[in-house]
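Researcher: Hi, I'm a grad student and pretty new to this. My advisor asked me to get structures for two proteins we've been looking at. I'm not sure of the right format, so I'll just paste the first sequence and hope you can take it from there.
Model: That works fine. Here's the first sequence with its structure tokens right after it:
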Amino acid sequence: MRDLANLAVSESLGSRFSTWLLRPYLDLGRLQAGPTHARSIDAGWQAYADPDSPSFLPQRALSPGFRVQLAEQAGAPYAVSDPRDLAKDLRTDRWRKLCQDLELWPKLSSARKCRLAALLHSMCLYEPLLKLIPEDWSSDSDADPRAAQLAFCRASAKFMLDMPKRTSSYDSGTMSAFESIAIDDQCHAPVRFNATAMVFVQKAKARAPLAELDDWGKRFEIAFAAVEDGENGFTAQLFKSRFYRGMGFLPQAAGNREAMFRTMDIAERQARDLAPTTAAEEILYRENLHAVLESRTKEALWLNDLELAASRASDLTRVDPYDSKAWVELGQVHYLKGNWQRAAEAYIVAAMLGPPASSVGRYMAGVCFSKLGLEFLAAFLFKETLEIDPLGISSRQEIFDLPDIEVLDTLKQWARSNIRL
């Protein structure tokens, strides 16, 4: 009976292309094709199910809004923030096991807790982590050495949950947990590296004073030195690529283009030279190269080199062809170049692939089609966008700006009739 139930859930989620691609978020099932961040969930499950296998800690995290968008396509029952909120008849065997172990959390070993927390984080299920992991922690010699890893996971979950309501570009209340881990020399070296990287990068994005950024850059160098020689070849090189990608912010903040270019070249070279030997390492390799190419595309835009930006964004879609955000990045570059047709093509692919960037892709494809004089195609996409997001202002205005043609005038009347105050 359970096999039949699993099959029914699988068929239901496979009825839409986007939910078929992203199904691990909804049922923890295996997938045939999908973006790297969805593949990370299966790798995280394998690491949790087999305690003797290497742990799996992906870098990328998606905002809670991603799950909201995905639930809109999968159906209201999938709009959950805790796995235990999913109806029992929609749970696969893996999902049931996840719920059972969440109930047993206090009895789990610290190692099992770390792996379970990493899996929940990959699934964008952040709220349970704030409830299960205590806010206060200690890295004293007598304490559990994995406490810092759990504290980092909790801090990361809070960072993601606070993102939509954050008023400051560097919120001390959200970032203090990362700072505490970063300055504690007793922390496990990889955890301290991750926390220091988080603080350094977020301060750079918030345009902290150069002296403050330089100070944290030195801390980052010390944290990197502690992991550089303490890990296996693949992991050590992965840390090296991440280190140089983060350090690229320092010359950028100082306005030193040549130094930034050199630093990012090292990050990319290390990322491309990684030699994964397992399926899990292949995911981490692609995830890291994705992040590097995304940063390098932004770097090229900062340097006002649109041709270079287009080349790097194209590489990004080859590394992660099922990620809608990668296609939006490519569409943006072509849009800046004024190449409406190629921009529209990239945006349409993003719209097809689903969250997290399908809504942006759908709307921007409509904008490009409008510029190409394909008003009816544009109208269809603006209508679709407005039906999915009735509060959308931009798509509604685009409908109002369409030519005065009878059928489009009716569309405009509809757009006016459902304005929500």
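Researcher: Oh nice, that was easy. Here's the second one.
Model: And its structure:
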Amino acid sequence: MGMLAAVVGVFAGLLLAAPAVHATTAPPPASESTAPESSTEATAQDSEDSGGDETSNGAEYQDRISGVLRNAGSPVAGVTIKASGNGYEAETETAENGSWSIGVPEQGAYEVELDESTLPEGVALAEGQQNPRTVTFAGTSNITTLFLLGEGIVLQSDTFGTKLIERAVAGLSFGLLLALSAVGLSLIFGTTGLTNFAHGEMVTFGAVLAFGFSALGLPLWLALVLAVVGGAGLGYVQDAGLWRPLRRRGTGLVPMMIVSIGLALALRYTILFFFGGATQQLPDSQSPMLELGPVSISRNNLVSLVVSLVVILIVAALLLRTRIGKATRAVADNPPLAAASGIDVDRVIRIVWMAGGALAALGGILWAYYRPGVSFNMGQQILLLIFASVTLGGLGTVFGALIGSIIVGLFVEISTLWLEADLKYVGALLIMILVLLVRPQGILGRRERIG
């Protein structure tokens, strides 16, 4: 209990300190970054210098519409951009680096218009540019829209093949980060039989810790490493303080599942109490787009794809090649037989909980960059997708969770070519139901695991 109290104390301290430190951190100079926030600060300062508040750029709001205005590769400053919708209107001007950003009070559809009368002489919108245009938020706190400039430039739309490749790459990136959390959940289910509804909060915990450590002034790489270690610590504390005593008491799986639901609610609203309901951004959450042949992908998504793939390969190698990996598979297959063979089942389960917590924390960090943003309920938002991945691949099978996650991620992103963005998660759950109607045990599951 002393260990549990210490961990809770450290967690509470980080949550209390993080927003305050973050709020007092000096913004980077506009010359060092092209982040949209720089234009917001510049415009807000201009408004203060003029002594008036007639024009609002929504600097106080977390949800933002942003972009960069360039002509022949050079930034265009002083151009007015307006946004309106849901009974709200705001406007801003592009900064010296061409960036602009407008905050909005709530997510939804907004009409964005570039005031062409404020463009420099001889500069005009490219042919085919829609102005004004409607933008819609879809599961993110920042949406980007670009106005192309250039005399004689004709806008060319991407072919269906190019769009399909881009959506497939984005789906692979999303599926692999989803797999990090799904593999951890599958390991826990395989060794204990527990359906852990608090796994979403373990995802949130990693992102919140990363934000807290970075807000305290630590280097980003160190903050991320400590957040993953903190996720492993949460898994250890959960098993030592809650699940192991319940197992020793002979508590059934259904009561333990109900306990996990209660734990999820307790963790979620504890984070809400200390962290707050606003969406916060991790450092470098706004990244440039990279052109890889016909594919455009953000730098953060590319890094997420590589990191997820490397970590999953390491986990697979550990499970297949090491003694602890073989012991984990033995416990997942038959705990009584594994114990009779001399395997310390409790030790294996403890290691699995720590590994599951670390993977969930890393998945939460990558999810915070993918959205982008850290919020108290971000893990809850993808919990059903994690369950869908595990169920689709086969309950208790680690490689099944990986395959299921990739399928879900690909379907979520590719389906946006035909479905509204708000329906993409519904489509992923629908494909899970259809597959399970044909193969109830999942793709790699075995029939004897069911029932």
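Researcher: Is there anything I should tell my advisor about the second?
Model: You could mention this: Confidence is low (pLDDT under 50) at residues 15-54, 152-156.
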